[in-house]
Amino acid sequence: MDEHDQRTSSRESSADSSVEGSVESSAEGSAGGSAGGSGTWAVVVNWNGGLEQNLACLRSLEAQGLQAGRIVFVDNASSDGSREEVAAAMAGLVHLDNGDNLGFGEAANQGAKLALDKGAEAVFFVNNDLRFDAGASCLAELEETLSSGPRVGMAGPRILFDDDTGRVWCAGGRLDFRQNLSTLLGHKQPDGPRWRESGPVDYIPGCALLVSRECLQDVGFFDAAFFAYMEDVDLGLRARRRNWSVLLRGDLRALHAPSSSTGGGYGARRKWMQGVNSIRFLVLHGRPTHWLRFLVFDVLTLPGALLLRGCRGEGAGVLAKAKGILDGARGRRVTAEALEPGASRLWP
After folding, report:
1. Which residues contact 312 (CB under 8 A, 6 or more apart)?
2. Which letter, b or e, does each residue of 229-263 get, where b requires 16 or more Cβ atoms within 10 Å of its Cβ?
3. pLDDT per position as a tens digit, 82-104
4. Which of 11, 208, 268, 296 could tie 347 with a disulfide, CB 3.0–4.6 Å?
5. Total number of domains constituting the chain
6. Are residues 185 and 288 in the same domain?
7. pTM, full prediction
8. Are 180 and 319 members of one domain?
């Protein structure tokens, strides 16, 4: 085992232990519904997602055959009333309520651990801004994919933009250690046969990710220190290093309305988080050649990006990305406090 593998092995153990006890210590849980035991459970994380968006997601999961009692709805201290509105509108969900915004990774881990404790055979991580076509059998097909081989650990559908279903949001992801370290395959490309092919990918985005019980128990959960962004890339890499297959089902589809809770698109908050977490990912997994690629394709392109994006009114995003890279190099991590309005001059 070389130095890089030793570092990875140590970190995987840490990812396992960090989840222990999180449901009791960080969440106030109240299980609802009568469903329980084995099968697939879904985990949906909410932070100020509003009633309409959350219900569209949750009801589409029910339409996939999941009873409400097998859907864990984890709320990260929402202040828009969405937690209470969802509880009133949809009975039987399993609720976990955090007193603070703990980030996607930690909240998703809480829900997954509860599901496994209840006997779940697989956990379906689903963003609250994602939904499934009525009448489709996406989840059942993904479950069949997990059962297609003893080392198939993760599966997910191709994902289209909800407001433009002829355009791909992603068809799995590739880790290339270039700009942003990873690439959403097919992003913003017209949908077509190329993106409907099924097969292995480097990772499945956490907005629609089905993971087997055995894979989670072997690999561990999301690294909560990422808070948001890159935690799904990290989990996919760790799974593949432990010889689990990560498979895209390109013939299946889900619809995604990318959230604007962190600024969306080229928003400053989002780009800052990507900068911070890119450095963390490289510290955990990067070899010298990976650092060099990141320097050439990401860091050194920032001045040109500032000129181009600045003309479009997106200069704050580029500056935030540069700040994130510097903050990450100083060991800073993404926290809810760092994302508060006015926490940086780059975002209101």
Report:
1. none
2. bbbbbbbbbbbbebebbbbbbbebbbbbbbbebbb
3. 999 999 999 999 999 999 999 99
4. 268
5. 2
6. no
7. 0.88
8. no
